[in-house]
Amino acid sequence: IEFNAERGRRWLESAELLGDADVIILNEMDNGMARSDQQHTTRLLARYLEMNYAFGVEFVELTLGDKGDRSNLGPTETNFHGLHGNAILSKCKIHDAIIF
């Protein structure tokens, strides 16, 4: 399954749709972003689904996101890591994943 997770903010709700898959390709996943409660959204989803994962950083977000993202944040919010990227989840083991 390929799934645009929209920053992974609703990873728990998404788990119901993705639970039967053997392999899931995710894009738009956050790690340490204020807009997604500083969570590593890929890791949370993978653990919930009892899957292995590899996460690759697409870019470091230097802002708090777009206008919609910022409207839900307080004035003192910051990004802990600010990482945004793509991921693969698999029921099979993932060995020596290389992102290039």
Can you give me a brief rundown of this structure?
Helices cover 22% and strands 32% of the residues. With 100 residues, the chain is of the alpha+beta class. A four-stranded mixed sheet has the order 1-2-4-3, with helices on one face.
Would you mind describing this structure in some detail?
This protein is 22% helix and 32% strand. The protein has 100 residues and is an alpha+beta fold. Strands 1-2-4-3 form a 4-stranded mixed β-sheet, with helices on one face. Helix 1 (11-18) links the parallel strand 1 and strand 2 (23-31).
Characteristics:
single chain; 100 residues; alpha+beta; 4-stranded mixed sheet; 3 helices; 32% strand
Low-confidence stretches: none
Total strands: 4
Count of helices?
Answer: 3
Major sheet: arrangement of strands? 1-2-4-3
Instruction: State the helicity in percent bands.
Output: 10-25%
Report mean pLDDT, rounded to a whole number.
93
Major sheet summary line: 4 strands, mixed
Rg over alpha carbons: 14 Å
Distance between termini? 22 Å
Order of helices and strands: EHEHEHE
Structural class: alpha+beta
Percent strand: 25-35%
Q: What global shape is seen?
A: globular
